[in-house]
# Entry
Amino acid sequence: MKTLASRSRVIVLGLGAVAVLVSGCADMTEAQRSAAIGGGLGALAGAVIGDSRGGAVVGAGVGALGGYIWSNQMAQKKAAMEKATAGTGVAVTQTADNQLKLNIPSDISFDTGRADIKPNLRPILDQFAQGLTSQPNTEIRITGHTDSTGSDTINNPLSINRAGSARDYLVSRGVDGRRIQIDGRGSREPIADNNNDAGRAKNRRIEIFLAERAVTQR
# Structure
């Protein structure tokens, strides 16, 4: 185990890092500021709960916004998803709070007005499902979105049903359904202009998030 003096040095360094981050956050957005400060605070948490196997290093990846870490497994999953979705129009990103996000447009996921998965989406979900059984601390969230065409009476359940179809497919590939949360936002969260075809196409989408919680060591 680490000596008290060694752990104290890590804590002092962590406090110094937080001070530098705070002083240099003036030009950051609120999300960037929170994530940056969270990294420094995570290092302190890692120093407190860490042991000789590198708890402080793990702790340094903890984000302030959701308590998630960006581990080697998450980085590997992102690389695998980028490879699996190359050229498909799917955007694979790391969010400010250390979630892996897949933004999947409707042209490869669902036909207009329908919630059954198109063939082009299946290989992507297959790749996403791989390895998740060996990552018990990961959480999955799927959110469905529509464009503004039609009423909320149609769009709200359609967005939920699309998220549900993606969940059911992942479950059929061995992912524990209890780890998956679904939500539908209808047309309430557009990412493009709904007044033209191109914008509406971008708004018809599902988003899949994968997040890993830090493991508290005793």
Remarks:
- The helical segments are 4-23, 30-49, 55-59, 72-84, 106-109, 122-129, 152-172, 197-203.
- Confidence is low (pLDDT under 50) at residues 10-26, 28-35, 37-65.
